[in-house]
Amino acid sequence: MFDRDTEGVRIELRSLTKHYPGQPAPAVDNVTLDIPAGELVVFVGPSGCGKTTTMKMINRLVEPTSGEILIGGQDVLSLDPDQLRRHIGYAIQQVGLFPHQTIAQNIGLVPNLLGWPADRISARVDELLSLVNLEPSAFRDRYPRQLSGGQQQRVGVARALAADPPVMLMDEPFGATDPITREHLQNEFVKLQKQLRKTIIFVTHDFEEAIKLGDRIAVLREGSHIAQYDTPAAILADPADEYVASFIGQDATLKRLALMRVSEVSATGSPAGSGLPQVSADASLREALDIMIAHGADRCATPSGVLTYAALCEAVGTRAGEQEDVVSSER
Ligand SMILES: Nc1ncnc2c1ncn2[C@@H]1O[C@H](COP(=O)(O)OP(=O)(O)O)[C@@H](O)[C@H]1O
Ligand SMILES: [Mg+2]
């Protein structure tokens, strides 16, 4: 049974439909989607297209009108909803921390419900606070109102992870934070997921966030219809239609540069004594380009050699005649 797993399990949606009573059209219309175990899949689409409804059917906060949901091969609709929800982490934009409980009590909510002994809960709370970069001794006994919005969202993520569920549903979990905090949370979350390998469905209306976090992205239109379902690189390289292209905007090449690392492109020669600007192996090609532009140089030094502007263009598949655009595109 999937509730014994802590690493990700596969999620399958089969002809999933939700028609709210009194609404002219289904909010979610006949959606079929396969989410591989251990992957982070982002649902991205405009407000009202059915993202939240799709997600809430998976933990049965909303009952489907028709269709099937399988988690780890198990039919979700045959399980007890309360039981089910204890094995699916859920983090939402509004965070939903209990105001009169301490941070430790908030994070320990599900483990407590599952009857874990007090010392195990307390150890888990401290482990999770450290994981989301909040010093346990400083935060465990505080109340939610004593935390900033960004700190509360980290607690929300920690709470969703508390019972080490194989599946996490995250509905715009960083949406309420300012851009700098959000970027910080995204970076931490990418690192965290590399360790955890949970199956995560992450909802956002922010395509940049989708590219940054997703192993795969489902671009949704009205009725949760899937316009394209693929890796960020594949969607950027080859959007399925005008609708998908409109999410990407004008700077697909720059977005693809941001997805690729300096270490993925072959460097040539030795930079020794060249005086070229330095980039690290794990910098993105976008960062390398920024450094080249800032130094007025068409090449830079990497730990393994010299990375040229031409090599960078080749890496993103820009043809010679289009090279101007890479530099002059709006940022
Ligand atoms: N409880 C509800 N009752 C009736 N209609 C709803 C309810 N929740 C959502 N809807 C409608 O379903 C559609 C999809 O909503 P939602 O899933 O919240 O979209 P998203 O998360 O993409 O913004 C919208 O038209 C919304 O108004
Ligand atoms: Mg929503």
Write a structural description:
- The protein is an alpha/beta fold and about 325 residues long.
- It folds into two domains: about 1-250, P-loop containing nucleotide triphosphate hydrolases (Rossmann fold, 3-Layer(aba) Sandwich), CATH 3.40.50.300; about 255-330, Alpha-Beta Complex (CBS domain Like).
- Helix content is about 40%, strand content about 20%.
- It has 15 helices and twelve strands.
- It has helices spanning about 50-60, 80-85, 105, 110-115, 120-130, 135-140, 150-160, 180-195, 205-215, 230-235, 240-250, 250-260, 285-295, 310-315, 325-330; strands at about 10-20, 30-35, 40-45, 65-70, 75, 90, 165-170, 200-205, 215-220, 225-230, 300, 305-310.
- The chain has a six-stranded mixed sheet with strand order 6-7-8-3-9-10, with helices on both faces. A four-stranded antiparallel sheet has the order 2-1-4-5, covered by helices on one side.
- About 35% of the residues are buried.
- Adenosine-5'-diphosphate (ADP) binds near residues 48 and 49.
Succession of helices and strands: EEEHEEHEHHHHHEHEHEEHHHHEEHH
Q: Using the CA coordinates, give the radius of gyration.
A: 22 Å
Strand content: 15-25%
The CATH superfamily of the largest domain is: P-loop containing nucleotide triphosphate hydrolases
Overall 3D geometry? globular
What can be said about the biggest beta sheet?
6 strands, mixed
Distance between the termini: 48 Å
Number of helices: 15
**What is the mean pLDDT?**
87
pLDDT < 50 stretches: 320-331
CATH class (first level) name of the largest domain? Alpha Beta
- Main sheet: strand order: 6-7-8-3-9-10
CATH topology term of the largest domain:
Rossmann fold
Quaternary status: single chain
Q: In the CATH hierarchy, what is the architecture of the largest domain at level 2?
A: 3-Layer(aba) Sandwich
